[in-house]
Specification:
By secondary structure, the chain is α+β, with helices and mostly antiparallel strands. Helices cover about 20% and strands about 40% of the residues. The chain folds into 2 domains: about 90 residues, no CATH class; about 160 residues, Sandwich (Immunoglobulin-like), CATH 2.60.40.10. It has 3 helices and 14 strands.
Length: about 260
């Protein structure tokens, strides 16, 4: 029964908790819901049943009047439902997008999977190594995605690789040359403190359609495995995908 209750709290967008009687189970469940950042509407017959550390939160004291409870709870529920939709919009948008890099599926960071390793072939020019990675972004839903306005790659400041060009479609690379930007503290808690804005801008993606592009990287020194993060801005939502660049095979094109 407890597992079922916690599962339902986890799935719920909005929770109404009646604190009447100071039921310890209800208190525990409200704490669990708050830890999950759920929208919780508190109701009670007597305000004395609201713990002191929850009194600052909005609550409805309805006494013994169900009519009063209905009149005050209905508008709060309407607000809470709209707020929940606003909060989960970005998550639902992300679930509609799949990303592949050089044929390897990338996963959103909240899925807890190992970071995929991207391999492939590149060319060596003197001390510099260059390689192109094919990018695929697919709309898996039955509704269109209205566009991806910004695409970034985040790297470790000490990394010996960097993105140097990007292109949409199968055409040749143009003069992209993204400049490094120091990432903000809140965007670099994983240690990837340098970000590069790619020149990619992707318009409307119809349901079931795939947009393709390429990202060119340059490496200096011996090739190593480096963790990077791909960030997509879809509307007002941000979606991050991790990958590792390494295990590359290079052909020497240096002048002899």
């Amino acid at each position: 029964m407890l597992d079922r209750i916690f599962n339902q709290i986890n799935k719920a967008d909005v929770i109404v908790a009646d604190m009447t009687g100071k039921n310890p189970n209800v208190f525990y469940e409200v704490g669990y819901a708050h830890a999950l950042d759920k929208i919780v509407l508190l109701v009670t017959k007597n305000t004395k049943d609201i713990p002191f550390d929850l009194k600052h939160r909005q609550h409805i004291a309805y006494g013994n009047s169900i009519a009063r409870l209905k009149s005050e709870l209905v508008p709060k529920l309407r607000w809470a439902i709209q707020e929940a939709k606003r909060r989960t919009k970005g998550v639902r948008e992300a679930e509609r997008i799949s990303v592949r890099l050089e044929g390897v599926d990338l996963f959103r960071t909240n899925l807890g999977r190992p970071i995929p390793q991207i391999g492939g072939y590149g060319l060596t020019y003197g001390d510099a190594r260059h390689y192109d990675l094919n990018l695929e972004i697919r709309n898996q839903s039955d509704r269109p995605i209205e566009g991806i306005s910004h695409i970034y790659v985040f790297c470790d400041p000490q990394a010996t690789i960097k993105p140097v060009a990007s292109v949409v479609g199968r055409t040749d690379f143009g003069p992209d040359r993204p400049a490094p930007i120091k990432a903000r503290k809140e965007d670099s808690t994983d240690g990837l403190g340098v970000q590069y804005r790619l020149g990619l801008q992707i318009g409307r993606i119809p349901p079931g359609a795939t947009e393709v592009g390429r990202i060119a990287f340059q490496a200096t020194g011996e090739p190593k495995d480096h963790t990077c993060r791909l960030r997509l801005h879809v509307g007002d939502a941000i979606h991050d995908f991790y990958f590792k660049v390494g295990n590359m095979t290079f052909a020497d094109c240096s002048p002899t």
